[in-house]
Amino acid sequence: AESEYRKAIAAVNQGRVSEAVDSLRNALHQDSLHVASRQLLVRLLLEAGNKDEAIRMLRDGIAGQPAQLGWAMSLARLQVDRGELDSAWQTLDHTLPAAGNNPDYLGFAANVLQRLGRHGEAADQYPKSTRIAPGDGRWWLGLAWCLDAQGQAAEAREAFLHARQSGNLSPELLALYDQKLQFALLSSLSRA
Fold it and tell me: Per the confidence metrics, is the pTM higher than 0.70?
């Protein structure tokens, strides 16, 4: 497997991608747990737009090595892109025990739960990320949306403030924040 992997690297460096893909498939046929071969094969498949085979390679890899969090996150992202939210959650839930204190993994898992409309579960999951990475506004914003969806206005407002104060929200997330803030102001004015 290692020899096939080295052949694949040489082929990639020389621009012979299809030859590299064949060598990587051979490497995995010889040793299905060869991490470097699987990672490079998935990358090459995605670059070629072959998402179906990349998904199969990621699924096979996770089946044999459930602690490969990067593979699980990549697979779940591909599933989310396809609108397969239930499958994305199943992927993440399967490997969640290996996530430990990985705030990106835990936050992404919470985000998938939130997209599924499972706000209570997501609101339970987001604080794990905010405790590990308190300066990451994404997880505070996700928590705020979930708390708001559950009618917990005071807790949501506090989480929204944490998100805004983080200073690291993307322009898109800041726009969502500002939109939510304007809506809240309009709602409070209409009740007055």
Answer: yes
Question: Which regions in the chain score pLDDT beneath 70?
Answer: 181-192
Tokens of 169: 């929200």
Percent of the chain with pLDDT over 70: 94
Can you read off the two tokens belonging to residue 107?
Answer: 């936050």
**Per-residue tokens: 115:** 């997209």
Give the tens place of pLDDT for each residue, 30-51: 999 999 999 999 999 999 999 9
Closest listed residue to residue 11, CA positions, set 50, 44, 33:
44
Tell the residue number behind the tokens 């990106």, with chain if given: 104
C-alpha span between 26 and 5 (Å, rounded) = 9
Handedness of CA 176, 181, 187, 190 (dihedral sign): negative
What token pair was written down for 103? 């705030």
Residue linked to tokens 């096979």:
60
